[in-house]
Design a protein that fits this description.
Layout (H helix, E strand, L loop, with lengths): L1 E8 L8 H10 L3 E8 L5 H11 L4 E6 L5 H13 L4 E6 L8 H13 L5 E5 L6 E3 L2 H18 L11 E4 L3 H5 L9 H13 L8 E5 L2 E3 L8 H5 L1 H41 L1
Parallel strand pairs: 1-2, 1-4, 2-3, 5-8, 6-9
Antiparallel strand pairs: 4-7, 5-7
Amino acid sequence: MKTGIIIPCYNEAKRLNVKAFIAFIKSHNHYHLCFVNDGSKDHTLAVLENIKKQVTTRVSIIDVKKNAGKAAAVRSGARYLFNKQDINYIGFIDADLSTDFNDFKKLVNRLHNNNELSLVYGSRGKGEGHIERNLFRNIFSKMVKFIVFLILRLPIEDTQCGAKVFRRYSIPVAYNSAFLTRWLFDVEIFLRLKKHFGSERIMSKLYEQPLERWVHAEDSKLGIKDALQIPYKLLSIWFSYTVVQSLHFNTNEGRIIALDKAETIYSKTAA
C-alpha cells in the first residue's frame, strides 16, 4: 500500500528541513512526497527542485504560479495524487514538520489496519504527547473549537490539525469542489464527509489519533489579521453548507414533487 503526502509550501525556503524530507523518502519506499509550491516569492521552488533531484521517482512538485492559499494547494495535491493509481492513501502535513513523520506514519497505520475508516487525523488536544503552543493561540484555539462544534455537531477534538490521511475513495468526496476558505478547509472536509456518510455513520468512518509531538512555528503564515477573520469565515461556512444547501435541496425536492404531479396528471389525461 503506497501513501502520498501533500506538503503545501508558501515562502518556505528558509524553513524546509531538506535533510529530513530526503532522509524520509529514501528510507520509505511506500511513500510519495507531493510538494505544492503555492506561488512562493522566495526560493522555495529551487529548494524543492533540489529535493527532487536526489529522489526523482517518488517526489513530485506542483508549481502554482499565483498564491491561492493552503486549501487550494492541498486540493491540487490531492487531485494530482488521486490520478496515480498505485497510491492507496493520500494525506497532508505542514511544511515545517510541526507534526513529524513518526506521528504521520501512525495515522497511516491506523487507517491501514481498520478497513472501516475513511479518514484518520491528528489531534493536539488528546493524549499526553509533547505539545507546544503559545498562550494566545491556546486561548484562541479553544474559542474556535467551540464555534466549530456548533457547526459540525460532531465530537471532534481538533479539526484544524495539519496532519490528516484519507483512504483513496474519500478523495472525490472531500476535494471534488473548491473550498470557500483559504485556511478553514478542514471544517469543510468534515461537513462534506458528514453529508456523504450521514450523521449516524460519520463517526464510525473517522478516527482522531493523539499526536506524540506537535510544535507551533512562530513565523506561521496565519497572522493576527487572518485570525480575527476566523469567526466570520466559520459563519460563512455554516451559512453555505447548512442554509444555502438546505434551500437548494428543498427547491429541488419541490421541483421533483411538481414533476411527479405533472406526470400523474398527464398520465390520467392520456388514459
